[in-house]
Design a protein that fits this description.
The complex is a heterodimer of chains A (236) and B (408). Chain A has a single domain, classed as 3-Layer(aba) Sandwich (Rossmann fold), CATH 3.40.50.300. Chain A has 236 residues and is α/β, with parallel strands linked by helices. Chain A is globular and about 50 Å long. Chain B is an alpha+beta fold and 408 residues long. A 6-stranded mixed barrel of chain B has the order 2-3-8-5-7-6, surrounded by 4 helices. The longest helix of chain B is centred in the C-terminal third of the chain and has 44 residues. The chains are: A alpha/beta (236), B alpha+beta (408). Chains A and B meet through helix 2 and helix 3 of A and helix 1, helix 10, helix 11 and helix 14 of B.
Chain lengths: 236, 408
């Protein structure tokens, strides 16, 4: 299978006052199409920075990032917005649904920026909601839905553009265990139907769900589960 | 994101914060309605003056005596001199001397108390000639005007203006009744129709007209000095020719040069211009104050838009993450600010129009609603919203998606 994500020597340095903080120290990674990958790491490990770069919300200081054949490093804000719109489906910890809009209007939002016609947007939004099992909740506002349902709406929104990758940032962080299982089950189904999923988390049982786990620590990425030898080890 | 989507998103954002949006618009609403009202008041005052001047007659020259200087050097105002005589007026009416003059109505004016039984009413006693009715474009509601024969004989007859007649004769027809002035009994032979001027200050409908000769006798002033001579030109085109003729004639008769003329000739246009000059100054001043309130309203829009950007920073971040370009975000906030400005303008226009209908019953001033002024006001409101939306919209567009998403 062809690589959908290629990171080569990616570094990210932040200037914090006179101090330079190196959040990512040369990351190399390849994720193939259709893979289900979890990236785990404690807070302060550079996990968020990596997520921002993978999500084209930020660009690396040096190194290259190719997403679905596009070299992302050289793009300006407007071009990055277009890449995010077409290639990435975000799922956030906070759901980030617009409270004033019914579920289907939230789902169609990326298509609005993609420039699709209204009828097409509506049809695709309803299809995506059907895909996550919320077809009957299309006209409900986020406030009228449970946390798990809201996250399903967010997943539908991530699916609706048929992106190259679904990038989920702590998607279960705000959910109870039932809803967590619910959402993770959904990811599994999506993966089984061929979706590329990158899941960023600090919870091991969540990371367990993925086929492949990458660990980030002190700005460096490595294959495998780092905590297996520390905390997780006692569990095995 | 096309224009329709941008507009729809902006309208939804405004609707979601109804109260805040209304409060934001308030400054613009007040500004626009006060601009419309002040311009309307100015326009109304001008219309009123124009009606008043139009009601004097048409193609009219108004000749008044000039200023007088007494022995101690004190100069009186216009009309204080007694330089205009009946002979002057008769000369103006001479076709051979002034061919462009159609008719001349000399008038004298004094205040006097008119008595009917136990009722009395003080008004202007105007002595004139039968030509007055035509020259001043007036009509009779009842009876007739006095004739040349009555003028020649000094007949004891009087024609009352409508308000005067109403004050003196509450019941019945005044025509044929007797009115006593300074001990002389006069017979009412006619009543004038109302002048049509709506001004409350006009005395056009409160006066008593009598033959010039009778007026001199009744008021006891036999100086033959006239207060005003109304001269009607043959047509609108010959107005300036008539002006020249009357001026030349009077200068010759009084044996004076142009620089020391002892009379003034006003046209309706010159009266209108003088009156409008004062009105315009007031209108400009008031509209200027209203414009400042509009500016304050615009700053209010900017203020609230900045708050709105800060408040919706997560929404902005999300929209950016989902693929909104900086310019799409900028357009959305500009559209929002424009909608606030436009809605404020439309509400303000409605309020102003409502005020224009309600205000006259409180302050006895005509308010003329001018459609171009309303259009301009609404346009200005839209421009204000757009103009003051630029800064907040740029702030929103410049937010990086990470910072926007991260903020709680």
């Amino acid at each position: 299978m062809s690589a959908i994500i290629e990171l080569t020597g990616v570094r990210k340095t932040y200037a914090s006052g006179s101090l330079e903080v190196e959040a990512l120290r040369g990351i190399d990674a390849t994720i193939a199409e259709g893979e289900y990958v979890a990236i785990v790491g404690p807070s302060g490990s550079g996990k968020s920075t990596l997520m921002h770069i993978l999500g084209c919300l930020d660009v690396p200081t040096s190194g290259s990032y190719r997403l679905a054949g596009h070299d992302v490093g050289a793009l300006d804000e407007a071009a990055l917005a277009a890449i995010r719109n077409a290639q990435i489906g975000f799922v956030f910890q906070q759901f980030n649904l617009l409270a004033g809009l019914p579920a289907w209007r939230n789902v169609e939002l990326p298509l609005v920026y993609g420039g699709l016609s209204r009828t097409e947007r509506r049809a695709r939004a309803h299809l995506a909601l059907e895909r996550v099992g919320l077809a009957d909740r299309a006209d409900h506002r986020p406030g009228e839905l449970s946390g798990g349902q809201q996250q399903r709406v967010a997943v539908a929104r991530a699916l609706v553009t048929e992106p190259a990758m679904i990038l989920a940032d702590e998607p279960t962080g705000n959910l109870d265990s039932t809803s967590t299982e619910d959402v993770l089950g959904l990811f599994r189904e999506l993966h089984d139907s061929g979706r590329t999923i990158v899941l960023i988390t600090h919870e091991h049982d969540v990371a367990e769900q993925a086929d492949r786990v990458l660990t980030i620590r002190d700005g460096e990425l490595s294959e495998g589960r780092w905590q297996r030898s520390v905390v997780g080890g006692s569990r095995l | 994101m096309n224009g329709r989507e941008t507009l729809r998103t902006a309208v939804e954002a405004v609707q979601q914060h109804r109260l805040r949006s209304l409060l934001t618009m308030l400054g613009i609403v007040i500004g626009i309605s006060s601009v419309i009202l002040t311009v309307g008041l100015g326009q109304g005052a001008q219309d009123e003056v124009r009606d008043q001047i139009d009601s004097l007659g048409s193609n009219l020259l108004i000749v008044s005596p000039g200023s007088s200087t007494d022995s101690s050097g004190i100069r009186g105002g216009f009309g204080s001199a007694s330089t205009l005589t009946l002979a002057d007026a008769e000369a103006m009416a001479d076709r051979a001397v002034a061919p462009d003059v159609a008719a001349v109505a000399p008038t004298t004016s004094t205040q006097a108390a008119l008595e009917v039984g136990t009722t009395n009413w003080t008004t202007s006693l105007v002595g004139t000639t039968p030509a007055w009715l035509d020259v001043r474009s007036r009509e009779l509601a009842a009876g007739r005007f006095f004739t040349a024969a009555e003028l020649a004989s000094g007949a004891e007859v009087v024609v009352l203006a409508s308000d005067t007649a109403a004050e003196l004769f509450t019941f019945g027809n005044p025509v044929g009744q007797q009115v006593t002035v300074n001990g002389t009994a006069l017979t009412v032979i006619g009543v004038l129709a109302p002048s049509g001027s709506t001004s409350s200050t006009a005395s056009e409908d409160d006066q008593a007209l009598l033959p010039l000769s009778t007026a001199e006798r009744v008021s006891g002033q036999t100086g033959s000095s006239l207060s005003t001579v109304y001269v009607e030109a043959a047509s609108a085109a010959s107005l300036s020719a008539a002006y020249q003729e009357v001026q030349a004639l009077l200068l010759t008769l009084h044996d004076l040069g142009l620089s020391d003329a002892d009379f003034t000739i006003a046209t309706q246009d010159s009266l209108l211009e003088a009156a409008n000059a004062t009105n315009e100054t007031m209108t400009v001043l008031l509209a200027g104050i209203a414009a400042i309130s509009l500016l304050v309203g615009g700053i209010g829009v900017m203020n609230i838009m900045l708050v709105s950007v800060t408040e919706r920073i997560r929404e902005i971040g999300l929209r950016k993450a989902l693929g909104a370009t900086p310019s799409a975000i900028r357009r959305q906030f500009l559209a929002e600010a424009s909608i606030l400005g436009l809605s404020g303008g439309v509400l303000g226009a409605l309020l102003g129009i409502a005020g224009a209908f309600v205000l006259p019953s409180f302050i006895d001033q005509r308010v003329t609603v001018s459609v171009p002024a309303i259009g301009a006001a609404v346009g200005v409101a839209l421009a204000l919203g757009l103009g003051f939306g630029v800064y907040p919209a740029s702030r929103a567009a410049a937010l990086t998606p990470i910072d926007a998403l991260r903020s709680e």
